[in-house]
Automatic annotation (TrEMBL), chains A, B:
Domain annotation Transcription regulator PadR C-terminal: ranges: 93-174
Name of the protein described by the UniProt record: PadR family transcriptional regulator
Domain Transcription regulator PadR N-terminal: 7-80
SUPFAM superfamilies associated with the record: Winged helix' DNA-binding domain
Species for this entry: Streptomyces minutiscleroticus
Amino acid sequence: MSLPHAILTALLEKPSSGLELTRRFDRSIGYFWSATHQQIYRELGRLEAEGHIRALPAEQPARGQRKSYEVLPAGRAELARWTAAPQDPRPHRDPLLLRLRASAVVGTAGLREDLLRHLDLHRRQLAEYEEIRRRDFPPGRDAPEDRLRHLVLRAGIDLETFWTQWLDRALAEFDEMGEAQVTDGAGRADGAGDTSARAPEDSAS
Amino acid sequence: MSLPHAILTALLEKPSSGLELTRRFDRSIGYFWSATHQQIYRELGRLEAEGHIRALPAEQPARGQRKSYEVLPAGRAELARWTAAPQDPRPHRDPLLLRLRASAVVGTAGLREDLLRHLDLHRRQLAEYEEIRRRDFPPGRDAPEDRLRHLVLRAGIDLETFWTQWLDRALAEFDEMGEAQVTDGAGRADGAGDTSARAPEDSAS
DNA sequence: TAGACCATGTAACATGTTACATGATTTG
DNA sequence: CAAATCATGTAACATGTTACATGGTCTA
């Protein structure tokens, strides 16, 4: 239920064509709500059908011609409604944590390299956010809109900081485990294995 | 591509029926890969069809009868393969950050209460994780599997810590903005509004 | 024996992903 | 004018969500 509202926000900030939106989703908005161009075109169609946006009049016809959209009053009202309505936090879904947990059962083979790769990616993302911060939020601006957007950016910075720190620690643990490491993996995929590998968390009642 | 692997991990830790899995997904595994019972039953069916798991023989017939599953060698091998294979981090999707950004354009009405509510929810989750940590990871255990699972738990703890801190700060900002607050919202949904509300991040290139 | 809950499922739909198609514009 | 790239889309599929259905077991 969020993609249309992400698009409405982006269009209110600046009327755009589908491709422009796609590019902006690769930069700013997409940092916390990503979308592919297929999703965006599909959603633009729906939003137009619902009367929330309209194509800017510029006598452009069919395929291959760019088409810009702007938000209509009904769209703005819908966005305001959605923003004000309470919403529960959505549950996390993180494959990397899942793989780590799986590795406690089937072995850590291959994982370390990918942790390193992720660490690098998160460091780059962090650097990118900090560059944006330097550029767009110099000390002393405090229009409410700037404060709100700065707050969002700080969430991104703090999240990436968390990941880099956590991955550092994870890698340190991997190194400490050293030889004692569970490198089993497919080695005994013959299934004669123990099923005693219960995870502690499940011990709860 | 992760749900089947989450289920394989859970079943390796302990063979279970669909409902038992559902409950465990509400507790431990589900903290970083949630799933409803419908998803779980659908996926159990597929995993069985693929020969990755099998129902434990216990002459239980049709509907309404519990059916336990265990992982077969092929399933364990598939899990090991998946765990070792590199995977890119998936992009974030966070409606709350989106709403905050939208509020820079359509007003902050209603948001503060929901931030408070989220703060409360994250504090509770944090307390729950710390309770699990006290119970299951007393100092001095260092079997590799425990270390790996502890690492995962710490990611949960650190993430919830991040959210509580960030929400604290966000609420402080809201209070500072005070009267100057953008409480507009539907107030001028007549659409005569400014479209000059460009977000700084978009100024790139 | 009626109602609550346990346990497994079906169906319909919404959202997200991947692969491909098509016309327009630019550039060598 | 051929090839690359821009811009908009279609189709098929995978995943996730919501609402409901069905039979079994327990308890007042």
